[in-house]
Amino acid sequence: MKGKGIILVFLGAASFGFTPIFVKTGFQYGYSLGQLNIVQMLAAFVLLWGLSFWKGLRVKEIRRLDLVKVAVTGSTVGLTGIFYYGAMQYLPASIAIILLFQFVWIGMLYEWIFTKTPPERIHLVSLIFTLTGVVLASGLTDGGLELHPVGLLLGLLSGFSYAGFIFFSGQVAVDSHPVLRSSLMVSGSLVLVLLIFIRDIPTVPVLDMRLWTIGVGIALVGAVIPPLFFAGGAPLISGRLANVLSSVELPVAIISAMLILSETVTIVQWVGVFLILAAIFINEFGGKLVQRQQRRQVS
């Protein structure tokens, strides 16, 4: 079961790494942030609920309180899309994904707040690695890159919402079917997106097949596969292991931005990326290694 969970979370995270391709393409064609988010969530809603009905799943299988929790958890998917895609309006995709990956240390805050587990010394080491990696990966050391303040803020907010999704997705209605949970999650996201972009609803060109093609692409890699695979895999593994596996999203997003969007990533920036990845592994496994060494010294 653990192996299945690892594979599902890994694939879900890797899928999310392809979202910049569709989002940047949508912006290039002149579509707004609201239009892309609305179409994405509508497509995800239809796809997931269609799959739920095809499988004969029923909402009655989940308790009413859990329904609310799943929907609220799902709203973090919508928030992540809004903040993350919004950041890409002002920043290169490779920089936006780096800011999204601040969920590494943000996740520590969530654990501290919700589980009363303060960060250990090894986690602070991980934080240093993360922040150093961000400085290098952002290109600030070259002096030739200026980060737009709005893009910077949106990117950091996407890290907070994504950390919330990872933290809570493995804790709500874990006994329900992953497809049904994902359908309920995307329902919460759809409601949130429609409320935030209510003024954009009349501007959506319903018969524009290019917009729907891009929207379906974003939906599949950003709102269908990640929550579906996380819903199926996260309950089978620890939260920390889920964080480590989700790190595959970073290199996938940056490599796809290089190859498809023709964005330039320097060697210094790659060093920063690897430092962020190292921080994730230190954060998740460093504590156990220290404990083992201490046990050996005592024995």
From TrEMBL:
Membrane spanning stretches: 33-54, 66-85, 91-110, 122-141, 147-167, 179-198, 210-229, 241-261, 267-286
Any single GO CC term annotated in Swiss-Prot or TrEMBL for this entry: membrane
Entry-linked SUPFAM superfamilies: Multidrug resistance efflux transporter EmrE (SSF103481)
One Pfam family named in its UniProt record: EamA
Topology relative to the membrane: Multi-pass membrane protein
InterPro entries the UniProt entry points to: EamA_dom (IPR000620), EmrE-like (IPR037185)
Segments forming domain EamA: 4-138, 151-282
Subcellular location field: Endomembrane system
Keywords: Membrane, Transmembrane, Transmembrane helix
Family according to the record: Belongs to the EamA transporter family.
Protein's recorded name: Threonine/homoserine efflux transporter RhtA
Species of origin: Halobacillus alkaliphilus
